[in-house]
Write a structure and sequence with these properties.
The chain is mainly alpha-helical. The protein contains 16 helices and no strands. Helix 3 crosses helix 15. The longest helix has about 35 residues.
């Protein structure tokens, strides 16, 4: 009987990226990353503590002294903020600006991205190139022409004008993002729906949009954060009655920042809403970020 010797080759040599990923899974590295995350949260903690201290306490010492004097913490600043009509009106204005600007961008971009990705029509390639080219257009270029246009239309200084400007500058990135995601959907799914007699609107609503939830959630977070935290566009196009929270907090500045109690409270409240939106869409956001990492 003949004995056949079979040699088993060793495991293939791992690449640099695979070795790096395996090392990042170690306990020491995870502890280090947790410490870095805590370090970046220190300003947020300082803002929260400052919003819970009286103005005299914030002026006399730093926020970290509350560790030895927790009795300084109080909700008086938030109670005073409730009675500040300027800040409350600006907070509502921010909601009136951010929500429509986000919804309109997502809806219009989804329709446009589907057309550019799955509908054949003359000039589709040139239109896609134009959308990509608009990504490099800085917002400062359109401030003066936009102000003149809105002034002629009677929209300057209104919430509608601020919303329209945000929608106009949010659409190029939104269309680019969703178009690339839609184009990656298997063609067999779209063609099968069309062969079953589904119209384009049905294909978009029943086939494409359910698959594109991660990309839509990512776009929603990005657009909402951009609009909510905007200051430049609001300074140019909003007046006193339509100013968002960022403009109102800037207007509350006094010499040497002696009203840190009001500013810290308003700033922390303005940060809570974007944080809640991020946590609400966090699961889909992570899926959208990782969607293109694997085939």
């Amino acid at each position: 009987m003949t004995v056949v010797e079979v040699s088993v080759a060793g495991s293939p040599r791992r690449g640099v990226l695979s070795r790096l990923v395996s090392r990042l899974g170690g306990g020491a590295v995870q502890v280090g990353l947790a410490l870095v995350a805590l370090f970046w949260l220190v300003p947020v903690l300082g803002l929260l503590v400052a919003s819970l201290r009286e103005e005299s306490a914030n002026t006399a010492s730093g926020w970290w002294t509350v560790l030895t004097a927790p009795a300084e913490l109080t909700l008086t600043n938030y109670a005073d903020l409730v009675h500040n009509s300027t800040v409350l009106r600006s907070f509502l204005n921010t909601v009136y600006i951010a929500v429509p600007a986000t919804v309109l961008v997502v809806v219009i971009a989804a329709l446009a991205a589907y057309g550019l990705a799955w509908i054949e029509f003359p000039g589709r390639l040139w239109l896609t190139t134009l959308v990509v080219g608009l990504l490099v257009l800085p917002v400062q270029v359109a401030l003066i022409p936009g102000a003149k246009l809105f002034g002629a239309l009677g929209l300057f200084g209104t919430i509608t004008g601020v919303v329209l400007f945000h929608v106009a500058f949010g659409l190029p990135f939104a269309i680019f993002l969703l178009r690339n995601f839609f184009a990656g959907i298997p063609r067999d799914l779209v063609e099968a729906a069309r062969m079953d007699g589904a119209r384009e609107w049905v294909v978009l609503r029943r086939v494409v949009l359910p698959i594109a939830k991660p990309a839509i959630a990512s776009l929603t977070i990005f657009q909402f954060l951009w609009v909510w935290n905007d200051l430049l566009v609001a300074l140019v196009f909003a007046d006193q009655d339509s100013a968002p929270i960022t403009v109102a907090l800037r207007a509350q500045l006094r010499q040497f920042g002696t009203n840190i109690d009001l500013l810290s409270t308003g700033a922390f409240l303005s940060m809570v809403v974007p944080l809640a939106v991020f946590l609400l869409f966090q699961r889909y956001f992570v899926q959208g970020v990782l969607a293109g990492s694997t085939k």
